[in-house]
Amino acid sequence: MHAGSTQSASIIAVRPASLASVRAKMYGRPLTEEQIGGIVSDLAAGHYTDVETAAFLVATAHRNLSMREVVALTRALAATGRTLSWPGRHPVDKHCVGGLPGNRTTPIIVAIAASLGVTMPKTSSRAITSAAGTADVMATMAPVDLDEAKVRQVVERTNGCVIWGGAIGMAPADDRLVRIERQLDINMPVHIVASVLAKKMASGASSVLVDIPVGPSAKLRTREDAEVMAEMFYCVANELGMAIRAVFTDGTQPIGRGIGPALEARDVLAVLRRAPDAPVALRERAIRLAASVLVLSDPGMTELGARRLAAEALASGRAGARFEAICEAQGGMREPPVARHTRTLLAKENGTVTAMKCRELARLAKLAGAPDIPEAGVFLLVGVGDRVHRGQPLLEVHATSEAMLDHAVAYASSRDDLLSIDCRQDAAA
């Protein structure tokens, strides 16, 4: 036998047996809990190549998994790593399904909830297909790579934290799936549900709030799509014995002004520090979602009462002080970095801003260097409904090099639909 043949035989011999289950799913066959567990165990152990991992993602995409299989996948992902528990506490967690740039409510919500006595050990992810994940944003203000002992210390001192779950080793098989999803630029509903709830199980959360933005360029484009995902969350969470609440929110435009880790962090701090120019929509959405967290923590609380408490915690400075305490406990608070280079894009005509393409704005921020370069991204100067005149600044592109700035601006200049401006509305006015 030739050396090449021997080598090929050796490679074939070490392929994980669970790949047979992946092939079965490619042909539409249902998988047992044991088969799914075998696949996830091999993923966690690093036995799958990137191509084999991608094959699993594609085979289980869209609606190729039954609800029973999604539950089994969630349990298997949670079981592959470390898990936390919080005896004597009722920890609440929160997740946004994404697709909406600048929607950085989580640090504000954690600060509000923790300041009101709610235990909220928030484990967050890095960006998958977006220009920033919550962990990327938080990392510009405080350390997020904490070990289990440090996380417990922070929560005991402050009631909350905002950390990267991967540092603890929670659901490592899911981290491998996320890495390939990021390379493929995909994030399917079944994977979102299994990934989110597996991480929440591992973090010890007993209740979870899920924010589902809905809009024409968000991840969930129609109310019908959002309701399908919400139903999946409810069904899987019920099987896992976890209380859950799904909230549909406006996904038609970015909520804050910044898109990119540092720029989004600056929006968060503006709200928490009660700055006069803080993004109003970000503040209001954070209050609304924080109220839902409070109701999950205390089902006897009314929605109106919860909103009043959340708003007061923010307005009084109590939430801002608690956020600073959380940052200090995680290793020290710092100010987000500032990009060395910026360029402003101007309106080409008079009119009214009628729409924003969320995906394209996120792509522009990524072309500028986000999320890998924290200070890179896009800063919006107008919103939907604003009247603008020719030559008026619409947005700023932030980058750390002229070359990346040129590349991003060239892309923006080639697109006329990042911000839709209707001249007729202006003329009618």
CATH hierarchy class name of the largest domain: Alpha Beta
Strand content: 5-15%
Weakly predicted, low-confidence segments: 5-13
Helix fraction? 40-55%
Which fold name is given in CATH as the topology of the largest domain?
Pyrimidine Nucleoside Phosphorylase, Chain A, domain 2
Number of helices: 18
Report the average pLDDT across residues: 92
Tell me which oligomeric state these chains represent. single chain
Named CATH architecture of the largest domain: 3-Layer(aba) Sandwich
**How would the global form be characterised?**
globular
Radius of gyration: 22 Å
Structural class: alpha/beta
Tell me the major beta sheet. Answer: 4 strands, antiparallel
Number of domains: 3
Kindly report how far apart the N and C termini lie.
83 Å
Order of helices and strands: HHHHHEHEHHEHHEHEEHHHHEEHEEEHEH
Give, in spatial order, the strands making up the sheet with the most strands: 6-9-11-7
User: CATH homologous superfamily of the largest domain?
Assistant: Nucleoside phosphorylase/phosphoribosyltransferase catalytic domain
Query: Would you report the number of β strands?
Result: 12
